[in-house]
Amino acid sequence: MPSDSRKSLGTSRRRFLGQALTAAGTAIVAPKVLDPNSAAEAQQPLVNRHLPIQGETPVTLMINGQSHTVTIEPRVTLLDVLRERLNLTGTKKGCDHGQCGACTVLVNGDRIYSCLALAIMQEGRSITTIEGLTTGEQLHPVQAAFIENDGFQCGYCTPGQICASIALLNEVKRGGASAVTADLTHPPESLTLSEAEIKERLSGNLCRCSAYNGIVAAVQQVLGQTPPSPAATILVQEMTG
Protein backbone atom coordinates (compact mmCIF):
# COMPACT_ATOMS: atom_id res chain seq x y z
CA MET A 1 0.00 0.00 0.00
CA PRO A 2 1.44 3.45 -0.92
CA SER A 3 2.68 5.55 1.98
CA ASP A 4 0.15 8.30 1.26
CA SER A 5 -2.70 5.78 1.52
CA ARG A 6 -1.40 4.36 4.80
CA LYS A 7 -1.04 7.87 6.19
CA SER A 8 -4.57 8.76 5.13
CA LEU A 9 -5.92 5.52 6.65
CA GLY A 10 -4.10 6.13 9.94
CA THR A 11 -5.45 9.66 10.10
CA SER A 12 -8.99 8.42 9.47
CA ARG A 13 -8.69 5.83 12.22
CA ARG A 14 -7.45 8.37 14.72
CA ARG A 15 -10.20 10.77 13.71
CA PHE A 16 -12.83 8.04 14.08
CA LEU A 17 -11.58 6.93 17.50
CA GLY A 18 -11.41 10.50 18.71
CA GLN A 19 -14.96 11.21 17.60
CA ALA A 20 -16.21 7.96 19.18
CA LEU A 21 -14.54 8.68 22.52
CA THR A 22 -15.86 12.23 22.50
CA ALA A 23 -19.40 11.00 21.86
CA ALA A 24 -19.14 8.35 24.59
CA GLY A 25 -17.81 10.87 27.08
CA THR A 26 -20.62 13.26 26.24
CA ALA A 27 -23.19 10.50 26.76
CA ILE A 28 -21.73 9.67 30.17
CA VAL A 29 -21.39 13.19 31.56
CA ALA A 30 -24.42 14.74 29.88
CA PRO A 31 -26.93 13.73 32.59
CA LYS A 32 -24.77 15.36 35.27
CA VAL A 33 -24.39 18.52 33.21
CA LEU A 34 -28.07 18.73 32.36
CA ASP A 35 -29.20 18.03 35.95
CA PRO A 36 -28.53 21.13 38.07
CA ASN A 37 -29.08 19.19 41.32
CA SER A 38 -26.46 16.62 40.37
CA ALA A 39 -24.08 19.35 39.35
CA ALA A 40 -24.55 21.10 42.70
CA GLU A 41 -24.07 17.83 44.57
CA ALA A 42 -20.83 17.20 42.70
CA GLN A 43 -19.49 20.49 44.02
CA GLN A 44 -20.03 19.43 47.67
CA PRO A 45 -17.18 17.87 49.62
CA LEU A 46 -17.42 14.07 49.70
CA VAL A 47 -17.59 14.00 53.51
CA ASN A 48 -20.75 16.14 53.53
CA ARG A 49 -22.60 13.79 51.19
CA HIS A 50 -21.82 10.57 53.04
CA LEU A 51 -21.57 11.70 56.67
CA PRO A 52 -24.65 13.86 57.36
CA ILE A 53 -24.06 13.60 61.13
CA GLN A 54 -20.73 15.03 62.19
CA GLY A 55 -19.42 15.17 65.73
CA GLU A 56 -21.75 14.59 68.65
CA THR A 57 -25.52 14.51 68.38
CA PRO A 58 -28.32 14.12 70.95
CA VAL A 59 -29.86 10.64 71.12
CA THR A 60 -32.92 9.71 73.17
CA LEU A 61 -33.15 6.13 74.40
CA MET A 62 -35.97 4.39 76.27
CA ILE A 63 -34.22 2.18 78.81
CA ASN A 64 -36.05 0.21 81.50
CA GLY A 65 -39.12 2.36 81.01
CA GLN A 66 -37.28 5.67 81.41
CA SER A 67 -36.23 8.14 78.74
CA HIS A 68 -32.55 9.11 78.63
CA THR A 69 -31.04 11.72 76.32
CA VAL A 70 -27.30 11.57 75.75
CA THR A 71 -25.06 13.51 73.38
CA ILE A 72 -22.75 11.07 71.63
CA GLU A 73 -20.92 10.40 68.39
CA PRO A 74 -22.80 8.14 65.95
CA ARG A 75 -20.17 5.40 66.29
CA VAL A 76 -20.69 4.89 70.06
CA THR A 77 -22.11 1.48 70.95
CA LEU A 78 -25.13 0.87 73.13
CA LEU A 79 -22.91 -1.00 75.59
CA ASP A 80 -20.65 2.01 76.12
CA VAL A 81 -23.63 4.32 76.57
CA LEU A 82 -25.14 2.01 79.18
CA ARG A 83 -21.94 1.61 81.17
CA GLU A 84 -20.03 4.86 80.64
CA ARG A 85 -22.79 7.43 80.26
CA LEU A 86 -25.77 6.06 82.21
CA ASN A 87 -23.94 4.04 84.89
CA LEU A 88 -25.98 0.92 84.12
CA THR A 89 -23.03 -1.36 84.77
CA GLY A 90 -25.02 -4.57 85.20
CA THR A 91 -24.51 -5.15 81.48
CA LYS A 92 -20.95 -6.47 81.24
CA LYS A 93 -18.24 -5.88 78.66
CA GLY A 94 -16.53 -9.17 77.93
CA CYS A 95 -14.94 -9.72 74.53
CA ASP A 96 -16.38 -6.50 73.00
CA HIS A 97 -16.57 -8.41 69.70
CA GLY A 98 -19.98 -10.14 69.92
CA GLN A 99 -18.52 -13.52 70.80
CA CYS A 100 -19.23 -14.09 74.51
CA GLY A 101 -22.74 -12.72 75.11
CA ALA A 102 -21.92 -10.98 78.41
CA CYS A 103 -23.37 -7.73 77.06
CA THR A 104 -26.73 -9.23 76.02
CA VAL A 105 -29.72 -6.92 76.55
CA LEU A 106 -33.32 -6.97 75.31
CA VAL A 107 -34.55 -4.61 72.60
CA ASN A 108 -38.28 -4.84 71.98
CA GLY A 109 -38.16 -8.20 73.73
CA ASP A 110 -35.45 -9.65 71.49
CA ARG A 111 -31.84 -10.24 72.56
CA ILE A 112 -28.97 -8.34 71.03
CA TYR A 113 -25.26 -7.97 71.73
CA SER A 114 -25.04 -4.38 72.90
CA CYS A 115 -21.33 -4.25 72.05
CA LEU A 116 -22.24 -4.61 68.36
CA ALA A 117 -25.25 -2.27 68.35
CA LEU A 118 -24.88 1.46 67.72
CA ALA A 119 -26.77 3.44 70.32
CA ILE A 120 -28.03 5.93 67.74
CA MET A 121 -29.90 3.11 65.97
CA GLN A 122 -31.93 2.25 69.09
CA GLU A 123 -34.05 5.41 69.18
CA GLY A 124 -37.75 4.59 69.35
CA ARG A 125 -37.11 1.10 70.72
CA SER A 126 -37.66 -0.32 74.21
CA ILE A 127 -34.38 -1.41 75.81
CA THR A 128 -34.32 -3.62 78.89
CA THR A 129 -31.16 -4.33 80.87
CA ILE A 130 -30.64 -6.54 83.90
CA GLU A 131 -31.46 -3.55 86.13
CA GLY A 132 -34.92 -3.30 84.61
CA LEU A 133 -36.08 -6.87 85.27
CA THR A 134 -37.05 -6.51 88.91
CA THR A 135 -40.26 -4.95 90.16
CA GLY A 136 -39.28 -3.19 93.34
CA GLU A 137 -37.83 -5.93 95.53
CA GLN A 138 -39.42 -8.69 93.47
CA LEU A 139 -37.08 -10.65 91.25
CA HIS A 140 -37.97 -11.73 87.76
CA PRO A 141 -38.84 -15.47 87.73
CA VAL A 142 -35.72 -16.18 85.66
CA GLN A 143 -33.55 -14.34 88.18
CA ALA A 144 -35.09 -16.35 91.02
CA ALA A 145 -34.58 -19.61 89.10
CA PHE A 146 -30.91 -18.81 88.50
CA ILE A 147 -30.42 -18.32 92.25
CA GLU A 148 -32.23 -21.50 93.20
CA ASN A 149 -30.47 -23.65 90.64
CA ASP A 150 -26.96 -22.24 91.07
CA GLY A 151 -26.95 -20.91 87.51
CA PHE A 152 -23.78 -18.92 88.09
CA GLN A 153 -20.44 -18.94 89.85
CA CYS A 154 -18.38 -15.78 89.38
CA GLY A 155 -21.50 -14.03 88.06
CA TYR A 156 -19.82 -12.00 85.33
CA CYS A 157 -21.78 -13.58 82.49
CA THR A 158 -25.00 -13.87 84.51
CA PRO A 159 -26.75 -10.64 83.39
CA GLY A 160 -26.34 -11.64 79.77
CA GLN A 161 -27.36 -15.23 80.50
CA ILE A 162 -30.53 -14.08 82.22
CA CYS A 163 -31.48 -11.67 79.42
CA ALA A 164 -30.82 -14.39 76.85
CA SER A 165 -32.97 -16.85 78.83
CA ILE A 166 -35.86 -14.39 78.94
CA ALA A 167 -35.54 -13.90 75.18
CA LEU A 168 -35.56 -17.69 74.80
CA LEU A 169 -38.88 -17.87 76.65
CA ASN A 170 -40.32 -15.17 74.39
CA GLU A 171 -39.13 -17.02 71.30
CA VAL A 172 -40.72 -20.29 72.43
CA LYS A 173 -44.02 -18.54 73.10
CA ARG A 174 -43.93 -17.13 69.54
CA GLY A 175 -43.26 -20.60 68.14
CA GLY A 176 -39.70 -19.85 67.09
CA ALA A 177 -37.52 -22.73 65.90
CA SER A 178 -33.80 -23.31 66.38
CA ALA A 179 -31.03 -25.07 64.47
CA VAL A 180 -31.84 -28.34 66.24
CA THR A 181 -35.62 -28.20 65.87
CA ALA A 182 -36.58 -31.44 64.12
CA ASP A 183 -39.99 -30.39 62.78
CA LEU A 184 -40.11 -26.77 61.68
CA THR A 185 -43.86 -26.99 61.12
CA HIS A 186 -44.40 -27.86 64.79
CA PRO A 187 -41.85 -25.99 66.94
CA PRO A 188 -41.55 -27.24 70.52
CA GLU A 189 -43.64 -25.68 73.24
CA SER A 190 -42.58 -24.81 76.76
CA LEU A 191 -43.26 -28.19 78.33
CA THR A 192 -41.68 -30.10 75.45
CA LEU A 193 -38.54 -28.01 74.95
CA SER A 194 -35.62 -30.41 75.19
CA GLU A 195 -32.32 -29.87 76.94
CA ALA A 196 -30.64 -29.86 73.53
CA GLU A 197 -32.99 -27.07 72.40
CA ILE A 198 -32.22 -24.98 75.49
CA LYS A 199 -28.48 -25.40 75.05
CA GLU A 200 -28.66 -24.51 71.36
CA ARG A 201 -30.78 -21.44 72.00
CA LEU A 202 -28.32 -20.23 74.66
CA SER A 203 -25.18 -21.17 72.74
CA GLY A 204 -24.40 -17.53 72.04
CA ASN A 205 -23.72 -16.91 75.73
CA LEU A 206 -20.54 -18.36 77.21
CA CYS A 207 -19.84 -19.16 80.86
CA ARG A 208 -16.15 -19.57 81.65
CA CYS A 209 -17.07 -21.08 85.00
CA SER A 210 -19.08 -23.77 83.17
CA ALA A 211 -22.26 -23.32 85.19
CA TYR A 212 -24.27 -24.60 82.24
CA ASN A 213 -26.10 -27.35 84.15
CA GLY A 214 -27.53 -24.82 86.57
CA ILE A 215 -28.44 -22.45 83.74
CA VAL A 216 -30.33 -25.18 81.87
CA ALA A 217 -32.07 -26.24 85.09
CA ALA A 218 -33.13 -22.66 85.74
CA VAL A 219 -34.68 -22.37 82.29
CA GLN A 220 -36.41 -25.72 82.72
CA GLN A 221 -37.85 -24.56 86.02
CA VAL A 222 -39.30 -21.40 84.50
CA LEU A 223 -40.70 -23.44 81.61
CA GLY A 224 -42.54 -25.54 84.18
CA GLN A 225 -40.70 -28.73 83.32
CA THR A 226 -39.35 -29.34 86.81
CA PRO A 227 -40.86 -28.45 90.18
CA PRO A 228 -39.10 -25.55 91.86
CA SER A 229 -37.04 -26.20 94.95
CA PRO A 230 -38.63 -25.55 98.39
CA ALA A 231 -36.66 -22.32 98.69
CA ALA A 232 -37.91 -21.19 95.27
CA THR A 233 -41.51 -21.98 96.29
CA ILE A 234 -41.16 -19.77 99.34
CA LEU A 235 -39.62 -17.01 97.23
CA VAL A 236 -42.44 -17.16 94.68
CA GLN A 237 -45.02 -17.07 97.48
CA GLU A 238 -43.35 -14.01 98.93
CA MET A 239 -43.25 -12.37 95.50
CA THR A 240 -46.90 -13.04 94.78
CA GLY A 241 -48.00 -11.99 98.28
UniProtKB/TrEMBL annotation:
InterPro entries: 2Fe-2S-bd, 2Fe-2S-bd_dom_sf, 2Fe-2S_ferredoxin-like_sf, 2Fe-2S_ferredoxin-type, 2Fe2S_fd_BS, Aldehyde_Oxdr_Iron-Sulfur, Beta-grasp_dom_sf, TAT_signal
Record's protein name: 2Fe-2S iron-sulfur cluster binding domain-containing protein
Keywords for this protein: 2Fe-2S, Iron, Iron-sulfur, Metal-binding, Oxidoreductase
Family annotation (Pfam families): Fer2, Fer2_2
MF term (GO), any: oxidoreductase activity, acting on the aldehyde or oxo group of donors
Pathway, per record: Alkaloid degradation; nicotine degradation
CDD domains: fer2 (cd00207)
Domain 2Fe-2S ferredoxin-type span(s) in chain numbering: 57-133
